[in-house]
Structure formats: C-alpha cells, structure tokens
Design brief:
By secondary structure, this protein is mainly alpha-helical. It is built from 14 helices and 2 strands.
Amino acid sequence: MKREAFTAWMSTELAAVEATLDALVPADAPAGLGEAMRYGVLDGGKRLRPLLVLAAARAVGATDGVGREAALRAACAVELIHAYSLIHDDMPCMDNDVLRRGKPTVHIKFGQAQAMLAGDAMQALAFEVLTPEVETLPIPPWLQARLCGLLARAGGQQGMAGGQAIDLASTGKTLDEQQLQDMHQRKTGALLQASVMMGAACGEPNTAVNHALHTYGAALGLAFQVVDDILDVTQASDKLGKTAGKDRCQNKPTYVSILGLEGATQRARTLHRQALDALQMLEAQGLPDIHALALLADRVVERES
C-alpha cells in the first residue's frame, strides 16, 4: 500500500467511524448529558485507536460481513473509552487542564458534575456498542464477549485506570525507566494494544499471528507515549491542541526527564523498529495486507501533535 492509497483508506475509515459515532452517541440523553457526551467525542482527535482496530481487522481479513461490522463497532467502542478517559483526566481532581483537542475541556464547557457523568455514560455506552442484539446485528455472542473482555482489561485496574493511579501517585517522585515503562504500558499502551487485538479478534488469526500483533501493539503503545513526552517539551499548545509543558510544570516523571531529549528520541526509534519487526512476522505467516499497520506505526513516531 503506497502512502496515497493509505491516505485514501484512512480518510474512508475515519468517515465511517465518525458517522457511526454520530449515530451511536445520543443527543437526547437527559438534562443535556447527550450534548456533553457528543462534545467530548465527536469532531476531534487523531482517531488512532479506531484506525488500529480497523487496520488489524484488515490484516486478518475481517473486511466484510460480520467481521467488518464487529470491527467498526469495536473501533467506536475503543474511541468512547479513550474519550471518556480524557474527560476525566482533564478534571481538576486529576490533571486539571483547560484545553483538549484545540477547544475547552468538557468540565470547562459544561461543569465538573456534567463532565463526570458524561465520562461515566460514555464508558457504559462503549460496552453497549459491543453487545448489539443479535437479531439486529448478527455479531456472535462469543465475539461480543471477547471484545468486551479485551476492552475491559485494557481500561481497568490492570490497564489505563491503574496506570493513571500510578501517574498521580508519582508526581514529584523519581522513577527509574522500568517503573516509568510499567506505568505507561498501563496508562497509554494497554488501550492501544487492545485496539490491535480487538481488530484481530474480528477475524480468525492463528496463535503466531496473535503473538505478532500483540508484540506490535505493545511496542507501538509505548512508542506513542515516548513521542507524547517529547512533544510536550518541543511543541506549543496551539500545535498540540492541549496545554504544552504540563508534565514539567507538574513535576511528573517522563521519558524526557529520565532519558533526556536525545535518549527519548532514540527510544522511540527503537520501539518503532520493534513494531515493524513484529509485522515482518505477520508476512511470514502469509498475511500480506499489513501495510496500514506499518504506516500507522510511522505516523505515531513522525507526528508533531
């Protein structure tokens, strides 16, 4: 897949995800809750996680029928979890930020109570999205359960929530690189890795393919956070769409604070190489359509926001 074809694929898939989210996130939830939910998830963000779901599904051949429907639902569910986490992370009791995706954060726009409820509702909606009535959308119950399990583990105490707890507890403290890696594998990496594995679950991958995709997702998830730490000190707020320099101001440990800017940059390159090496294992398994995954890995390490 050349970059022009990748750009076309990405544009098509982003439009599909946006249209599906628009249809699934209710505008008529009580007392303005729907408005806050839609503000928090629609019309913004890179949509990396949904794209990883759909690229992994493409790699394992889940591009039509039930596999495609399940993958699109999974893409939207993982984005709902991601968006809810951003709403809660931005609140004064957590990271206390006022800017997200280039606009005021949800609690600034709607108030803290409504922001908390919007996040709660979006988390629940994610699992509702993954479990449609079989009569309406024939996604087998076993696949629904598999997708729910992958997403729940990535978002809970083993993953994102646990990593965020470590992050808050580590403010002002010194962590070594292994401790920092453990935190970010949970806080950021788990949901990115789950995105890949949820896409794979929509097809019929063998054990070797699953292992390679798991390795790819782990490397890419950590690379994303390393690049995030680099951009926090090298880019301005208007470029990032969120407050720049926040980690340094809050005295949080980062890859830049531990490894230095050059060391963090080299770490991102190493993780990028590990992700691409994992994709070569997929080629050895006879999966030729891995180019979207490779180009998404490139985007993660080359991005400027």
